[in-house]
Amino acid sequence: MVYKEPARCPWSTTDPLYVRYHDEEWGVPVHHDKKLFEFIMLEGAQAGLSWITVLKKRENYRKAFDGFNPEKIARYDITKTDSLMQNPGIIRNRLKINSAVTNAKAFLKVQEEFGSFDSYIWQFVKNKPIRNRWADLKQIPARTRESDLVSKDLLKRGFRFVGSTICYSHMQATGMVNDHIISCFRYKQL
Q1: Catalytic residue numbers?
Q2: pLDDT for 166-179, tens place per residue?
Q3: 187 touches 140 (CB < 8 A)
Q4: Which domains does the chain have, with CATH numbers?
């Protein structure tokens, strides 16, 4: 018997880590605040780089940033951020490291105001994933009206590294948008 690989989004077939991320995480609706914060941190770290670079460093980020715990990260001081700058397991960019601290503080304020970050962020898609119908990767936009709104509001609330393109990537990753192409086996599953 011949085993046939399922049809996937073309971007996911270059690396086993990408395949696993595509098959198990990308586009799956996330409603857990800590996981939503993790993706905000990772998407911000990815700015200007490839997503595979960040995926390969994800476990290092988890260790270096206290399991993506926003309460702990919000208390980081200059000593801690300086030590993170020496960590070769993460992307050593001072602006990105400092933005993790800034974003943790802003994240906690959003939780306080809305009861959860989940309640806040999912309102931008009316609490239901947007299900697109793309036949080809070239059709998928880098940003949308919704991601523009998310970005504008996050920036107003003090977040950094949350431009519209980053916000759209966050929406795709956390399942607020289903951007699997229609021939991909995950499209129908999600």
Answers
A1: 21, 43, 51
A2: 999 999 999 999 99
A3: no
A4: 13-189 (1.10.340.30)
